[in-house]
Inverse folding.
């Protein structure tokens, strides 16, 4: 009988912040053996797994950053593919947001040689090994605290060390809630971050309909007054509807904001769509100011005769309601966000394969409008070819492409590819962190 041999599975660093890239190597396999690797992570009580196979080299070694898999979920040399290619074992979309950011993600990595493979192989399945990879949402020294002042609902993450720090307000999109994960990652990069909730949080509406902009004005003033942001002003950031909101706040309060980061945004104000109060409907107003609704593109739009947020597909699969909406030129002019009023640094992150709405077009319109207006501060547009309407953080699963909307329950596609979304997540996080630091170092222009 052949004695069981242990494969040496090494993860470096084994325990670190979510955004940190790891190296993963396997040693001790039979030369030229097929080595299968499985990664299992429990998220909110649901197992997420990925599985790929590699060909060991002549020394019986596999380096997941140098060796592309020969079979399995992904086929590029990237150790972190074990994480971004994971899917839920029950096949359900969603479930990535942790119940608590203070509980780290633990991934078990198992490796074994496939029976009978390799040079001079004998026996069956006698080579095994395992290791753990720990991703921490909250890094060492980060201080987390709830903000429940002046009717605000938020969670503050303060970096380790002495301030003042670059400071950013982080907002979610049409799913609502608090984006504590992104705020916590910013804090581990020396950026103070307030995850601000504006609906689907305690004390706020369940729907996005008729959200008052005064709430965000209060938040900006609170951060400026109480959190001592570097440079005297906070940045503002949001994704999807939060990206639309980010541009809207920059145009509404240009002197109070240091810079903005809009993830997969809109260049126009839209109606409440899939996050609407059922009594208001998809074409009801999303935002109000001084009690009056802001004009939006779905308000009696003469070019729109249908809507996709009820989950019913149009008979023409190539029909795009966002293109149809542009046919009403008067409404386009009335609902356009006048971003040229903002003179500070602007960053937009979009996906060319965004299937939820045209974030690439919106970002290009923003950049062109700013250029025509003589905007002198930094303009950064990260437009990813194979990415969709998805803004994950690095090294989280990017397989949630076809999903159910958390408010309406309608099924829709985010677009992009698993690999394209993963690459966009990693690169955009690094570039946005650098942008935030630059924005607070540069002198502010009026």
């Amino acid at each position: 009988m052949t004695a069981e041999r242990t494969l040496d599975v090494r993860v470096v660093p084994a325990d670190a912040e979510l955004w940190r890239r790891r190296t993963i190597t396997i040693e001790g396999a039979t030369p030229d053996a097929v080595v299968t690797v499985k990664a299992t992570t429990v998220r909110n009580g649901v197992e997420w797994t990925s599985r790929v196979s590699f060909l060991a080299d002549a020394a019986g070694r596999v380096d997941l950053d140098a060796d592309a898999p020969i079979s399995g979920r992904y086929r590029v040399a990237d150790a972190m593919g074990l994480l971004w290619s994971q899917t839920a074992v029950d096949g359900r979309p969603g479930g990535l947001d942790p119940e608590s950011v203070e509980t780290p993600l633990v991934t078990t990595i198992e490796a074994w040689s496939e029976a009978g493979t390799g040079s001079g192989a004998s026996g069956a399945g006698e080579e095994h090994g395992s290791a753990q990879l720990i991703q921490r949402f909250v890094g060492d020294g980060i201080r987390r605290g709830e903000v429940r002042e002046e009717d605000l609902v938020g969670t503050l993450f303060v970096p380790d060390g002495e301030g003042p720090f670059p400071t950013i307000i982080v907002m979610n999109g049409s799913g609502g809630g608090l984006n504590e994960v992104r705020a916590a990652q910013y804090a581990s990069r020396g950026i103070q971050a307030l995850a601000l909730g504006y609906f689907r949080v305690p004390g706020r509406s369940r729907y996005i309909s008729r959200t008052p902009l005064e709430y965000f004005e209060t938040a900006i003033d609170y951060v400026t007054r109480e959190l001592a942001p570097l440079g005297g002003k906070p940045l503002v950031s949001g994704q999807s509807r939060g990206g639309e909101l980010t541009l809207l706040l920059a145009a509404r309060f240009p002197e109070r904001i240091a810079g903005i980061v809009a993830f997969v945004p809109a260049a126009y104000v839209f109606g409440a769509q899939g996050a609407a109060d059922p009594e208001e409907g998809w074409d009801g107003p999303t935002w109000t100011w001084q009690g009056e609704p802001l004009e939006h593109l779905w308000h009696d739009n003469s070019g729109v005769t249908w809507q996709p947020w009820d989950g019913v597909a149009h008979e023409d699969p190539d029909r795009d309601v966002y293109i149809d909406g542009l046919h009403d030129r008067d409404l386009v002019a009335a609902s356009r966000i006048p971003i040229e009023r903002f003179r500070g640094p602007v960053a937009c992150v979009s996906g060319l394969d965004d299937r939820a709405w045209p974030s690439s077009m919106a970002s290009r319109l923003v950049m062109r409008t700013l250029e025509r207006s003589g905007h002198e501060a930094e303009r950064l547009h990260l437009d990813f070819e194979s990415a969709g309407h998805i803004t994950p953080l690095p090294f989280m699963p990017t397989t949630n492409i076809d999903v159910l909307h958390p408010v309406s329950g309608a099924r829709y596609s985010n677009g992009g590819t698993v690999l394209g979304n993963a690459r966009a997540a990693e690169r955009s996080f690094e570039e946005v962190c650098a942008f935030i630091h630059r924005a607070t170092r540069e002198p502010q222009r009026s």
Q: What stands out?
A: The first strand starts at residue 5 and ends at 6.
